[in-house]
């Protein structure tokens, strides 16, 4: 007899839903024909408030906290992005990482304090080209010298482009089915299955709804909240490096996006519980331009001379207590298993594969009760 696989429904098609599909198929060898992704918004769609993933900078950075779980998520993702990049490039053939929307660039990060030793000890173990910056290098940074700084080789995403290519790979290579549909209750997920699936003895539902987890029936997680961020995107072919500075009451970042448009994302803000992604503010734009041009003067001398492509805002799906990666089984039906995988806040691209790996491991193991 052939091996039996579970049926899988993934709710959500942001970077967390796609990473979950990738871990299931490429790392755990579950056939994609067993998997259906259902989401209100799919790669290619845009929604200011309901779909965060296209709005990310996005790169791999030190923005995330220092707890053990996060250190694991960040490391796992950093180390596995090379496999992901290769898998996608092999599938598409003849294309390069700039086209794919997942490339490499140098990065420098600065802090106005000495960061947690656990974080730095962890980073130095795996970041490529990791280097602690000297006092002389710190003193060159304006307006005041930061307390600490590192340089390393990071990952850069062109988020909207990468999401579409990632989705194309999951559909084309693995035959994962994608359905565009909003759910009001998580129980509805059982209706969305891949028609090619061979009925398994278990049905796994991965809840990757990001901010949507706040209002989705059977989840209604009110620990979930938005952290708004405004960005200014300029055309800057001469900047091919990341530069970020973390202060107690500000976050300044400069992130180049792979691709022919030579976009440079300038940010930003971390505004807790602010749901307004529709509007952008001129004073925030001015503040972002002032901070980023001070941090990396080679962007340009005057803000007025920059070619601004757009100003946008997005909502990071934050959660008090950190991401929820938790398994539930239905009390009267142990064949139905829900695995929550949301709350990636400002680090879904850089930590999301590690989160998804943990979620998939929980889903494929045997334990626990659900309220569905
Ligand atoms: C300005 C900004 C800059 C950022 N920069 C970075 C960065 O540089 N690096 C980084 O790692 N991260 C960055 N982030 C964070 C990153 O964007 C998020 O962590 C990530 O996109 C979260 O992905 P997600 O899949 O959880 O959520 P989302 O992308 O919001 O996806 C949620 C999915 O669930 C679906 N959904 C929700 N509710 C329902 C429902 N009821 N029924 C059906 N479907 C539903 C949605 O339609 C969507 O498909 C940034 C974010 C912002 C706003």
Automatic annotation (TrEMBL):
Entry's transmembrane regions: none
Source superkingdom: Eukaryota
Ranges for domain FAD dependent oxidoreductase: 8-355
One GO CC term, this protein: cytoplasm
One Pfam family this sequence matches: DAO
Binding annotation for D-dopa: 253, 316, 346
Keyword Transmembrane helix in annotation: no
Cofactor: FAD
Residues reported to bind FAD: 52-53, 209
GO biological process: one example: D-amino acid catabolic process
InterPro entries in the record: DAO, FAD-dep_OxRdtase
GO MF entry, a single one: D-amino-acid oxidase activity
Keywords: FAD, Flavoprotein, Oxidoreductase
Keyword presence, Oxidoreductase: yes
Record-linked PANTHER family: D-AMINO ACID OXIDASE, D-ASPARTATE OXIDASE
Family: Belongs to the DAMOX/DASOX family.
Name under which the protein is recorded: FAD dependent oxidoreductase domain-containing protein
Lineage: Eukaryota, Fungi, Dikarya, Ascomycota, Saccharomycotina
């Amino acid at each position: 007899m052939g091996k039996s696989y579970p049926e899988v429904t993934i709710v959500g098609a942001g970077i967390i839903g796609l990473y979950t599909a990738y871990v299931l198929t490429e790392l755990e060898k579950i056939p994609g024909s067993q998997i259906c992704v259902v989401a209100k918004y799919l790669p290619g769609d845009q929604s200011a408030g309901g779909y965060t993933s296209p709005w990310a900078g996005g790169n791999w950075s030190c923005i995330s906290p220092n707890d053990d779980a996060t250190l694991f998520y960040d490391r796992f993702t950093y180390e596995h992005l090379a496999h992901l990049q290769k898998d996608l490039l092999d599938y598409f053939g003849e294309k390069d990482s700039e086209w794919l929307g997942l490339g490499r660039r140098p990065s420098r990060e600065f802090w106005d304090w000495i960061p947690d030793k656990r974080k730095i000890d962890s980073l130095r173990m795996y970041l490529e080209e990791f280097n602690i910056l000297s006092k002389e290098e710190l003193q060159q940074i304006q307006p005041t010298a930061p307390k600490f700084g590192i340089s390393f080789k990071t990952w850069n995403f062109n988020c909207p482009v990468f999401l579409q290519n990632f989705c194309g790979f999951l559909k084309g290579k693995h035959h994962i089915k994608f359905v565009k549909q909003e759910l009001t209750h998580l129980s509805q997920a059982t209706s969305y299955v891949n028609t090619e699936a061979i009925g398994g003895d278990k049905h796994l539902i991965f809840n990757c709804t990001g901010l949507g987890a706040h209002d989705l029936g059977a989840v209604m997680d009110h620990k979930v909240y938005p952290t708004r961020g405004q960005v200014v995107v300029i055309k800057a072919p001469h900047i091919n490096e990341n530069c970020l500075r973390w202060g107690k009451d500000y976050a300044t970042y400069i992130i180049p996006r792979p691709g022919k448009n030579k976009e440079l994302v300038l940010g930003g803000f971390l505004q807790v519980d602010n749901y307004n992604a529709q509007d952008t503010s001129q004073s925030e734009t001015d503040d972002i331009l002032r901070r980023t041009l001070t941090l990396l003067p080679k962007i340009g001398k005057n803000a007025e001379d920059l070619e601004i492509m757009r100003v946008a805002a997005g909502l990071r799906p934050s959660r008090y207590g950190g991401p929820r990666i938790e398994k539930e089984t239905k009390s009267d039906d142990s064949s139905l298993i829900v695995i929550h995988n949301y709350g990636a806040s400002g680090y879904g691209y850089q930590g999301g594969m590690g989160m998804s790996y943990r979620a998939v491991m929980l889903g494929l193991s045997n334990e626990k009760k659900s309220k569905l």
